Amino acid sequence: MHWFGFNRFGLMGGGFMMLLFPLIIGLFFYLFFKSSNRHCTPHNNNALEILDKKFVSGEITEEEYLHKKSILNKGK
Fold first, then answer.
1. DSSP label at 4?
2. pLDDT (tens digit, 0 to 9) for every residue of the chain, 76 residues total?
């Protein structure tokens, strides 16, 4: 039943859908970008960790370590 153009929700005609639709779209984008950012890991940090492990285990010399570390830090 309508009273002066308002329905039982108190909003005119499609007003409720005009509010609900952008909220649903916004929620979709929020969840999409939140989940996609979670899987991104900085590859540079992984490379530094690997480099540190190689240096500690003795696979590379200190000179090689410092040289490679300076190259990796240039990308930051």
1. T
2. 555 555 555 555 566 677 788 899 999 988 888 876 655 555 557 888 999 999 999 999 999 999 999 998 886 6
Helices in 1-76 by DSSP H: which ranges?
A: 15-38, 43-57, 62-74
Query: What pTM does this model have?
Result: 0.42
Q: Which residue has the tokens 């916004």?
A: 26
Residue 51 neighbours by CB under 8 Å, 6+ apart: 60, 65, 68, 69, 72
- d(CA 53, CA 56) in angstroms, rounded, equals 5
